[in-house]
Amino acid sequence: xxxxxxxxxxxxxTSAGAIGLLLNSCSTVERSVLAPPQVEGATFVGNKACxxxxxxxxxxxxxxxxxxxxxxSGREQNGCEACHGPGSKHVASGGGRGKFIVNPSKxxxxxxxxxxxxxxxxxxxxxxxxxxxxxxxxQCHDPHGQDIMxxxxxxxxxxxNRTCAQCHREQTKPVIFEHAALREGCTIxxxxxxxxxAKLLTIRDANLCLKCHAQVHRPGxxxxxxxxxxxxxxxxxYGFCWVAGCHTAIHGSNVQPYxxx
Length: 261
Fold this sequence. Notes:
Elements: H1 3-27, H2 47-51, H3 55-60, H4 65-73, H5 81-84, H6 88-92, H7 109-112, H8 116-121, E1 126-127, H9 159-165, H10 169-172, E2 177-178, E3 194-195, E4 226-227, E5 230-231, E6 252-253
Antiparallel strand pairs: 1-3, 2-6, 4-5
């Protein structure tokens, strides 16, 4: 019995050592520093050279998350030139849109250097056509502004829906009977970059709707799916709640509170 305290102490010491080794190994791992885009023959000039011409962008950029990355790293090429490449030739030529500089609005590769997860999503079967060159990241995101999740100049109010509304006007127009999910933003149901499901849905079939519209258990109705007072057992077999003549106006309706039309 006297051996138990010694064994307990040995176990605690061994565990503490293992945890310490794990924490030490995690703390010493450095994040990879990706090389900025290259412009042949150009050198880095620093953010101050950009401020002379790009006054409006320079004024709002310090509040941007991209600017905070620059401040944390202390590396000049992590500022403007981290995305646009070295700017000496651009400055020497007197500027000009996209002249001697990388323009992420034309080529998403500069964005993909850091946003690897989003790059992978654009390879899903259903995706916005960024890789095809029909869209660019800056149509939905403001890389220089305080809120990257909205387009440049967009209102902060309902920012996610406003971004989508630029193209999807029919789905985001004001209605009398609004689908409450829209108050959470379009991304509560749709994956904006890409998805394996049709219409960029985060979850396929009626399972998406059942996240919010919970089924109700009723005594004596085992095996049936009740939502509210309606037995939906037969309906959900169609796969989607917005087909088969049911909730066809799923984004909202002006005449019907259950979005039937």
